[in-house]
Amino acid sequence: MKKVYILLMIISTFACNEILMAQKYHYPVPPDSIYNKQARVDYMIEHFWYEQSLGDTALFKNPKLILDYLYLLKQTSDIKNEKYIRDFVSLASKQTNTIGIILWWLDNILYDSSSPYYDENIYLKFLEEIIVSDIDPAMKIFPIERINILKKNQIGKVANNFTFIDKQNMEHKLNDINAPLLMLIFNNPDCSMCNSTEYKIEDDKIIQQLIKDSILKILAITPYAEYDNWIKHKYPKEWISGFDKNTNIYNQRLYDIQRFPSIYLLDDKKRVLLKEADYEKLCNFLPTIIQDTLNNQ
To answer: Fewer CB within 10 Å of terminal CB in the chain, N or C?
Structure first.
């Protein structure tokens, strides 16, 4: 019985803390004179951080406030959200207690490819404002490194070329492979999720039809692993299997591979259409890009 009381006290304390935290949030309320929906969103995002005590670390013990802000931000135009991000960073950079926490949340929310809010373009805008802000120069080291990574293989830009060997020890380059669409899968033969993804792609009727119609080719690249494990692994027969024997992809950070498998989709000019995706994201993206590819043939 004593344990039950202690547990109830812990739950009660946690609930009270959550209520107190919720009471710390003060969302801006547009005046009644603003009727237009977009104008109301613009008003809220413009005044969002002026309603908060940005130096209060309790506000950032969970990501709720930042997520609410990002939700509003993504409903504004590119030109406007650049201004709003600049204004926010200008305010946040003066808060020595919380700026590090804020940067940590932004990195986890916008940069981690497994995050449902993953958005490299928005994250890049934040980072570019941070490195020209007044924060401690030591705090800029990490954002600068992130920017260098994010600017590689951006959506719409040509993917980095690299060299690999096939299972006959013949050397090839990414740019040597010609196809309307090229699916680039970074994988490891010992990765269970990679093997599961192989099976899913093999059972995917749309993908298999694209391969049959010579619209899609699949290149599975192992950037680092035991060579013997790779050579023994049986990839689907339609796939091109490659191994980076010099580990240049990894050592030179040619691609930002956050986890295996990491799927990229390239067009016939090797421009990046989709990056750092899993099978589910690929399936959601394919219908639109297939239609565009067929229209351009």
So the answer is: N
